[in-house]
């Protein structure tokens, strides 16, 4: 059974069938949609995929955080099939379908935003979720500006790519929307040398307050948008004390705090959302946007906020044709049921403990492993040329990615300098598979350093 299998490479990569399909891809698909992996998926189960040539790979990328419950969960297949036999689509602006309401009710129950009475709307992608979160914040506050952070990634639409820090994602897009201001994100590994964590938090809060002085006056800021763990930015967690300080600033200045949990949500952190940890610390966000693993691979995203905020939005500015599609809602309801029943939050912490112990040992063993970080099972390993200089080592990461792929493990880089290996393995991975993957990755470090 594929979901219990271990990696097995039977051909040179790409195999002959995959090579032929990849050639067709070159002719039919824009080259700007890059892929560096020498395989073409035929089927997937759990954390494993089989390509068209019969090679078996372990997937530690999971569609970049989409497949927390793994590939082809039989209950999810059945839920989508059952819905498909009734109807595929009913646009909520025209014909109400109960799945949308049932899923909204569930999200209102589990999403830890500040106001306890909540409402949820649905869109199709992470970028759409962030765009709508910003629209909601602006409409409710009547203010024109937002603050985002260095290292941020919020999507590839025009507004979302403007919010995104790495400008390689938006070369040639201009002119860009105005009203977007950027503060420095608290990267403790690359923060001021010699600072304690407390000093660093104070330093980064002062950097945020400078934006009010030199960029956007606080009374004109609708929202501060934060990734609880930066994804593309390098898997950098926002320190809890910093989040608490940002929450205090927002409360004092009438600004909404928006959590971008597109990648961190749905059991990845060891809780359903990182904002669950924030809630325990008394700093819940006002709006939470999520996508990716919400529906197990069917396109869906969600924006949840307190009823006061949602009811303060002008008619007509939110909604859309496919948002909350019936198939997607059926899938999401089953995904949440599975996550809760199978305690995937607990499984995330088990996986994280095993991986962190191994990754930390590599930090001691290898000069090139500069930092290990993350929350729960969303973890990153930052590679450098040496620990003293902390010079980013993107070439080593590129070699490691290639080595792993050729040995049956799919991993991906991240970070401003592309020098971080990200860990987004499906939470249904078996212990044997996890051990095998760790062995392949360690072998890659040894072979490529």
UniProtKB/TrEMBL annotation:
**InterPro entries found in the cross-reference section:** Aminotrans_3, Aminotrans_3_PPA_site, Class-III_PLP-dep_AT, PyrdxlP-dep_Trfase, PyrdxlP-dep_Trfase_major, PyrdxlP-dep_Trfase_small
Top-rank lineage group of the source organism: Bacteria
Q: Name it.
A: (S)-3-amino-2-methylpropionate transaminase
Annotated Pfam families: Aminotran_3
Q: Which UniProt keywords apply?
A: Aminotransferase, Pyridoxal phosphate, Transferase
Q: What class of enzyme is it?
A: transferase
Q: CDD domains per the record? A: OAT_like
Reaction(s) catalysed by this chain's protein: 4-aminobutanoate + 2-oxoglutarate = succinate semialdehyde + L-glutamate; (S)-3-amino-2-methylpropanoate + 2-oxoglutarate = 2-methyl-3-oxopropanoate + L-glutamate
Q: Name one GO molecular function term.
A: identical protein binding
The record's listing under Gene3D superfamilies reads: Aspartate Aminotransferase, domain 1 (3.90.1150.10), Type I PLP-dependent aspartate aminotransferase-like (Major domain) (3.40.640.10)
Pathway per its UniProt entry is: Amino-acid degradation; 4-aminobutanoate degradation
Q: Which gene encodes it?
A: gabT
- Tell me which EC number(s) this protein carries: 2.6.1.19, 2.6.1.22
Q: Which family does it belong to?
A: Belongs to the class-III pyridoxal-phosphate-dependent aminotransferase family.
Q: Does the keyword Transmembrane apply?
A: no
Per its Swiss-Prot or TrEMBL entry, what cofactor is needed? Answer: pyridoxal 5'-phosphate
């Amino acid at each position: 059974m594929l979901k219990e299998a271990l990696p097995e490479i039977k051909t040179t990569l790409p195999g002959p069938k995959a090579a032929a399909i990849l050639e067709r891809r070159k002719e039919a698909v824009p080259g700007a949609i890059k892929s560096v992996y020498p395989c073409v998926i035929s089927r997937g189960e759990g954390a494993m995929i089989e390509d068209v040539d019969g090679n078996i790979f372990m997937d530690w990328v999971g569609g970049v955080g989409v497949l927390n419950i793994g590939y082809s969960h039989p209950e999810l297949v059945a839920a989508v099939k059952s819905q498909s036999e009734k109807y595929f689509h009913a646009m909520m602006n025209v014909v109400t379908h109960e799945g949308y309401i049932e899923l909204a009710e569930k999200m209102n129950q589990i999403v830890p935003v500040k106001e306890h009475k909540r409402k949820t709307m649905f869109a199709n992608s992470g970028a759409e979720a962030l765009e709508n979160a910003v629209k909601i914040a602006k409409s409710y506050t009547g203010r024109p500006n937002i603050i985002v952070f260095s290292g941020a990634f919020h999507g590839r639409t025009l507004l979302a790519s403007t919010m995104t820090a790495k400008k390689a994602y938006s070369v040639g897009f201009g002119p860009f929307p105005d009203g977007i201001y950027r503060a420095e994100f608290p990267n403790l590994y690359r923060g001021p040398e010699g600072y304690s964590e407390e000093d660093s938090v104070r330093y980064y809060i002062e950097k945020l307050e400078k934006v009010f002085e030199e960029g956007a006056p606080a009374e004109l800021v609708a929202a501060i948008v934060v990734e609880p763990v930066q994804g593309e930015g390098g898997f950098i967690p926002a320190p809890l004390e910093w989040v608490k300080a940002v929450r205090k600033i927002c409360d004092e200045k009438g600004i909404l705090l928006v959590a971008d949990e597109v990648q961190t949500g749905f059991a990845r952190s060891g809780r359903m959302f990182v904002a669950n940890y924030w809630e325990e610390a008394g700093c819940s966000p006002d709006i939470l946007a999520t996508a990716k693993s919400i529906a197990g691979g069917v396109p869906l995203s969600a924006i949840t906020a307190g009823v006061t905020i949602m009811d303060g939005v002008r008619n007509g500015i939110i909604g859309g044709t496919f948002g909350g599609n019936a198939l997607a809602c059926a899938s999401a309801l089953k995904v949440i049921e599975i996550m809760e029943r199978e305690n995937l939050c607990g499984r995330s912490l088990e996986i994280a403990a095993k991986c962190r112990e191994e990754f930390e040992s590599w930090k001691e063993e290898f000069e090139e492993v500069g930092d290990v970080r993350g929350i729960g099972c969303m973890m990153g390993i930052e590679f450098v040329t040496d620990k003293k200089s902390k010079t980013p080592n993107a070439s080593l990461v590129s070699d490691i990615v290639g080595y792993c792929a050729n040995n049956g493990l799919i991993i991906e880089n991240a970070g401003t300098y592309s020098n971080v290996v990200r860990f987004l393995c499906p939470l249904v991975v078996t212990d044997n598979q996890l051990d095998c993957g760790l062995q392949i990755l360690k072998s890659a470090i040894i072979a490529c350093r």
